[in-house]
């Protein structure tokens, strides 16, 4: 059974990836520093998969600790690298914090397993595209100047990985997965998105508002050049997203795959903020209170992905729609209301 190191494996996407790795016959090894996650999620994962996976609590930006990890886990054949700071607004205020953590962790990890044949899946982002010139955006679209230090860390990390591969010195294979907007939760309602403080993303704010933790939802702008005036994003169910990481590992296990590639992960369809609100009301039967507010600086008007390459080369396609995203997110919100962490 192949051992896969999952960094940030107790986070939102990481925890779902751990479950899908087990479903696909892999043995996950979780690494997390618990800076933006809860140790209790390890018990939640255990309830789903039936055993407690190996777990190492450490900071990947500390080189000595990562080297010790590589000695403790020498049989790793794949790495899924989720671990990174990810709040756009915070990155603007604290850029050095983001550059230190997101770059040091990646470089330390790459160095630690450099001599081994390892398949690495990198957690990237559609933020590399900015506001695309053409929609839907393909992987060949130009990478625009980053709008935040967080976005810049994703762009530069992709360059680091490509430079490493093209230098020819390592035994790595690498796939970068450019996520659009992950939402939803596992069908068991045992794991899901667990934001610390006020949610920065739309869907957890919706669910927290619906359950009474937050006030009215503010729709930031209704005068954009979109059908209903609100911003459009490509929302993807987190379980579909997790399955794509398994598909990326399978692709790299083929002898025909060499070097580096990148893929869009989305549904290929955009949904506006108002459409997401209405989908939540439709799928849950819960009425939301929302108001229209001013535009937010830096918001991209509309972006959704062309997923043709992912379908054809990765052999993966999103299966769950916006209603399943909203209803599963609501079931998770209700679970943590009665089972707080």
UniProtKB/TrEMBL annotation:
Pathway: Carbohydrate metabolism; galactose metabolism. One of its GO terms (cellular component) is cytosol. Belongs to the NAD(P)-dependent epimerase/dehydratase family. GO terms for biological process: galactose metabolic process. It catalyses: UDP-alpha-D-glucose = UDP-alpha-D-galactose. Residues 5-327 form the NAD(P)-binding domain. One of its GO terms (molecular function) is UDP-glucose 4-epimerase activity. Its EC number is 5.1.3.2. Its cofactor is NAD(+). NCBIfam families: galE (TIGR01179). InterPro entries: NAD(P)-bd_dom, NAD(P)-bd_dom_sf, UDP_G4E. This is UDP-glucose 4-epimerase. Signal peptide: none annotated. PANTHER family: UDP-GLUCOSE 4-EPIMERASE. It holds the Pfam family GDP_Man_Dehyd. Keywords: Carbohydrate metabolism, Isomerase, NAD. Homodimer.
């Amino acid at each position: 059974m192949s051992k896969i190191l999952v960094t940030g494996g107790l986070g939102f996407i990481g925890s779902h990836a751990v479950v899908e790795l087990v479903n696909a016959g892999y043995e996950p090894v979780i690494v997390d520093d618990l800076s933006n996650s809860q140790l209790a999620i390890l018990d939640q994962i255990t309830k789903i998969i039936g055993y407690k996976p190996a777990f190492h609590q450490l900071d990947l930006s500390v080189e000595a600790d990562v080297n010790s990890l590589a000695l403790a886990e020498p049989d790793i054949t794949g790495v899924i690298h989720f671990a990174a700071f990810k709040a756009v607004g915070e990155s603007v205020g604290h850029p050095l914090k983001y550059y230190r953590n997101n770059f040091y962790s990646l470089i330390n990890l790459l160095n630690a397993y450099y001599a081994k044949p390892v398949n690495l899946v990198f957690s990237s982002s559609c933020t590399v595209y900015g506001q695309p010139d053409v929609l839907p955006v393909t992987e060949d679209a130009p990478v625009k100047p980053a709008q935040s230090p967080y976005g810049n860390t994703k762009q530069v990390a992709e360059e680091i990985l490509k430079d490493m591969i093209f230098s020819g010195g390592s035994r790595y294979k690498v796939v970068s997965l450019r996520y659009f907007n992950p939402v939803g939760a596992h069908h068991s309602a045992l794991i899901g998105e667990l934001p610390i403080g006020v949610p920065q993303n739309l869907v957890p704010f919706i669910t927290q508002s619906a359950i009474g933790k937050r006030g009215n939802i503010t729709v930031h702008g209704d005068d954009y050049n979109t059908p209903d005036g609100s911003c459009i994003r490509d929302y993807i169910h987190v379980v579909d997203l997790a399955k794509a990481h398994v598909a990326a590992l399978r692709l790299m296990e083929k002898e025909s795959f060499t070097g580096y590639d990148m893929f869009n992960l989305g549904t290929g369809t955009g949904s506006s903020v108002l459409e997401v609100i209405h989908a939540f009301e439709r799928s849950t039967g819960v009425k939301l209170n929302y108001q229209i507010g001013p535009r937010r600086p830096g918001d991209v008007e509309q972006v959704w992905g062309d997923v043709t390459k992912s379908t054809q080369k990765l052999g993966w396609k999103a299966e769950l729609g916006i209603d399943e995203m909203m209803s599963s997110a609501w079931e998770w919100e209700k679970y943590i209301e009665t089972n707080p962490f």
